[in-house]
Amino acid sequence: MTGDRRKRQLRILELISTRPVRTQEELADALNAEGWDVTQSSVSRDITSLKLVKVDGAYQRPSRIAPEPEHPDERRIAEGVLTVDTAGEALLVLHTPAGEANRVAVAIDRLAWPDVAGTIAGDDTIFLAARHAQAQGRVLRTLRKLMASR
Questions:
Q1: Is 72-148 in CATH node 1.20.1250.20?
Q2: 87-96 pLDDT per residue, tens
Q3: Could you report the per-residue pLDDT of 59-74, keeping only the tens digit for each?
Q4: Which of 29, 47, 124, 141 keeps 20 to 30 A from 105, CA to CA?
Q5: Across residues 88-114, what is the average pLDDT?
């Protein structure tokens, strides 16, 4: 996935989480108003890729398919992480909605996972340093499992 497409999809997730978006055209108009060059068909592909569903006529993220994490910090991670990617052999890059990165990073830090050396949070991005390549894989699997619970 290209960087622009990822950024656009993150923006779509932010839009649908802050206001009801009922049609693909409405979503395309909102994105175009922000300077994104999109069509209804590109928005349709994004909706499919993000597996968005309509609830009460508005697009939303899919409902939870796994049990919700019981620990509040795990729940914060599950709800706050939109995407996670590897960067090198020991780094992970996590994307969150705007303003949520610090809260998610604090939750990760409080859990004190032994494979995590530390986190650095911006506004909507977290750099997570794993202790080594194998630790990176374990943390990635844990994060994806938590994300699947939303």
A1: no
A2: 999 999 999 9
A3: 988 765 555 668 899 9
A4: 47
A5: 95
